[in-house]
Amino acid sequence: GRPAWQLISGLGKKAPGITSVNGKLLFVNGTAVVPSIHPAGVLYDSRVLPELERAVSKFAKVFKATRREGP
Q: Which pTM does this prediction carry?
């Protein structure tokens, strides 16, 4: 979610909103990250479910590609 993204990005409150980076492959200090809306957000607003699904799908693709390439 937003607070975690603000911390991880290193930009604090100047970080772009979580919805604008949701599901995008980004690199922070050389580490691949795929920011996502917090899953609990779906409990409050079911309209964000497609956004969460998009982020999880992107993460799965990145993870699978990384596992195939190896360390």
A: 0.73
* Cα separation, 9 vs 37, whole angstroms: 15
Paired strand residues for 33: 26
Are 7 and 33 spatial neighbours (Cβ–Cβ below 8 Å)? Answer: no
Tens-digit pLDDT profile for residues 7-28: 989 999 999 988 899 999 999 9
For residue 30, which amino acid is it? G
Residue pair 34/26 in contact by the 8 Å Cβ criterion: yes
Q: How many residues does the chain have?
A: 71
CA-CA distance, 42 to 7, in Å (whole number)? Answer: 22
* 13: Cα separation from own chain's centroid: 17
Half-sphere exposure in the Cβ direction for 36 (13 Å, CA): 21
